[in-house]
Amino acid sequence: MSIIIFAFSIFCGWLIFDVVKHRKLNIKMILSSFVISVIAGVAWWLLDLIL
């Protein structure tokens, strides 16, 4: 469950950062935030397995 919360918070944070930086919201920003959050979630899961 913590992996999902972590990935969702990365998604929201990355999306907010992009919106503040570019002053607009488009599908490319949403998709890039989603990809980054999936990568972060997988990395968090792998760290959880290793440690």
TrEMBL record:
The keyword Membrane applies. Keywords: Membrane, Transmembrane, Transmembrane helix. It comes from the Bacteria. The keyword Transmembrane helix applies. The chain crosses the membrane at residues 6-22, 29-47. This is Uncharacterized protein. It comes from Halalkalibacter suaedae.
